[in-house]
Amino acid sequence: MEYISSSDKIWNNKGKQKASTSSTVQTLSEENPNSTITNIVHPFIRISRPSPPSSRSTSPSFSSSRSRSRSQPPPIMTTSYQSRDLKTRVKNYFGYTDSTPETISVTSWAKSSTPDARSAVTTYLLSLFPFIQWVPRYNLTWLLGDLIAGITVGMVLVPQSLSYAKIALLPAQYGLYSSFIGVLTYAFFATSKDVSIGPVAVMSLETGNIIASVQHKYGELYSAPVIATALAFICGFVVLAIGLLRLGWLVEFIPQPAVSGFMTGSALNIAAGQFPAVFGLAKRFNTRDATYKVIINTLKNLPHSSLDAAFGVTALAMLYFIKWGFAYLGQKKPRLARFAFFASCFRHAFVIILYTIISWRVNIHHKTPRISLVGSVPSGLRDVGRPYITGELIGAIGPHIPVATIILLLEHISIAKSFGRLNGYKINPNQELIAIGVNNTLGTLFSAYPSTGSFSRSALKSKAGVRTPAAGLATGVVVIVALYAVAPAFYWIPNAALSALIIHAVADLVASPKHSYGFWRVSPLEYIIFVGAVLWSVFYTIESGIYWSLATSIVLLLVRLARPRGHFLGRVRIKPESVEGGHQIRDVYLPLCSEAHQDIPVEAPPPGVVIYRFEESFLYPNASLINDRIVQYVKANTRRGKDFSGISAGDRPWNDPGPKKNESAAIIEEQLSKPKLRAVILDFTAVANLDTTGVQNLIDTRVEVEKWADAPVEFHFCGLLSPWIRRALIAGGFGQGNTRSGTALEVAPAVIENLENVASPHPLPERDSDGFPINRTTDLETGEQLLNNHNQNQVASGSRTPSSRGSFVDEKAIHGVGLNKDGTFKRRTSDNSSRTVPLVDRSTPFFHFDLPDAINSLNLEEEQ
């Protein structure tokens, strides 16, 4: 006999090995009936050998064989037995038994999950440069759309860049530097055609707060541009590392209400800080205080408004008048809608140009300007070179890095995903993070401060008909022209007009009442997170609003994981109407106590059967809660197996007080009328993960309910979608063994498999043009009727026993009825291309395909 390791065998030779093993055992037993058979455990085969013969044996045949083995022992057999004994002891030490069903192995999973190294590296490198995919197909039609969209965005980007640099406490030219490098680099690394990169209001506000904090600590040791470029380099490097390591999924831990909350709070903070400049009051108090303080101080100082108010208030009113006026024109005159759209897009540039001309006419003859002006803006790219970064500066910026990085990540990814869904394409979040990281790290060579995606400019770019990310190159040309040709004219731009432009831009970031009410309707708890983020940003700082959003979101996630709902189920019989008008009765299982189904009578499961459905993964945070929930339900709805009522207090367990003295006979009779626990069915359909603590709590649950019932209790599982969950349950001792009748009862249907085209056991429903599922009831009922008729014919003819009902299906016997990819039955022209495949391994009779199969297995057992 030669030992065969599991690594040397192919996947489908299990049956042959068992057959040969059984024949070996039978031969040895016939040679010596008194010999002891010792099993060597192996995950795939069972090899048996006789124990060393006793000296008292009187069998002649065996005695002669023993003498031959003493004179000349076979070296191969001795070595093989010693090797097998060692392996047996090792496996027994780790608790591996011969009856353990085959499960997924770490080795096979690693091999199937590990891609080819060469192809993986090639794919990774190509993904870093997305422009390689679309540049070869570039054409004139795309060029025209990109030019229109790029120039349109550029006309908005230039005045916004000047305004946002003011929020960041930087000279105006640094906003243009950030705009130029942002749109230029993003075109080569982007997976979104709609996003416009550059200075944004929220990031500019955070940059200004960091600059003010560092300068408050170190004075004029570090200038504002030095601090801003160092911040851009550090944040860009962090974001770039996240993208290269493919950790973009971390962003998904921050929900949409949290993002919307601190964006709304930040927008209110920015708008409140710009109103003093609109009225010429910026020098009278600190505009970077908490939002509510700025609002109060602005109202107190309104009587001291200067001539700047004439520019700021009228500029803000004109911006809204142009926006609403052309929107109304586009609705009333559909033929002029495109003209109205582009005319509205140029309102930012138009207002800035108009008020710059007015400012020049007002101040040209005065040595001292009568209003606050932007001042001199040097032409071209003057401050080019590597950033100045020291350890001391990094230490000063360090505490602010998490918030700044989160703003870069969230604002850009949320915008990119939104426009991807709107325009029918999917972005790569990791590649978008790489694009942001490259933009900010390379931008420091041109003295750029942190920049990310802008919602308002991205919306404008999308509506303008952009075709590819190359539109950013046209936008970059507009910025360069402004830097080199128009920079001297920037001197006369009124600061009040820029503040009006900022207020007009950030107003779109404030969540509308309809939007915020939607949070309340979907999840009141998430609405609290949204409101809390807004309030923290308004009454304290935007950093506190972000930290509130993150902390409460994570706490809510953990609470939902640790306190899952779960339901005890009962049966409801329904009669869905088919297309042809017939009726087919089927069973569905709903919660016994549910607010959503108060008017539906739910029938309790069979006596002594408990059905529980999980709603979350079964992990260590919620394992103890679910254990207590099941045990308490069992004790409340089933009777105790052993009667302790007549036992004295001294013999009673310490934690069992027993019946009360004044307890009526009716209550005792009611307790005795309850059924005895027979089986627990656990629906694992919603369970995606099961850890060691969960398995241990399942074992504890089984021990507790069996002590209560004073008898073995069957634990059935259905909906095991993950092979790792099945592996974990088998390791915990679940799923195996026989039922009380001694028969392995698995009634799950088998998949009718086409060898050329395998049907999915969990198909997605087909949908019509409106997105609704197509009703396939007629097809399913027809196929099921054929299967049922065939099964009844086989039982009646004696070719099949009732105990094997549903364990497999012979597709040839039902006249070629098979399964389509959508799960419906179909007919095949050939009966030789199919075979039967069981949905659930027969070695685990307590694992079922779905809940009806688990119930049917209990009913079948009762019949037997």
UniProtKB/TrEMBL annotation:
Lipid bilayer topology: Multi-pass membrane protein
TM annotation in the entry: 140-158, 170-189, 226-249, 309-329, 336-358, 388-410, 464-486, 518-539, 545-563
Residues covered by the STAS domain: 607-758
GO MF entry, a single one: secondary active sulfate transmembrane transporter activity
One BP annotation, GO: sulfate import across plasma membrane
Keyword Transmembrane helix: yes
Cellular compartment(s): Membrane
Keyword Protein biosynthesis: no
Compositional bias (Low complexity): 43-66
Primary localization: membrane
Keywords: Membrane, Transmembrane, Transmembrane helix, Transport
Region (Disordered): 1-81
InterPro entries assigned: S04_transporter_CS (IPR018045), SLC26A/SulP_dom (IPR011547), SLC26A/SulP_fam (IPR001902), STAS_dom (IPR002645), STAS_dom_sf (IPR036513)
Biased composition (Polar residues): 1-10, 18-39
GO cellular component: membrane
Function per UniProt: High affinity uptake of sulfate into the cell.
Family label: Belongs to the SLC26A/SulP transporter (TC 2.A.53) family.
Entry protein name: Solute carrier family 26 (Sodium-independent sulfate anion transporter), member 11
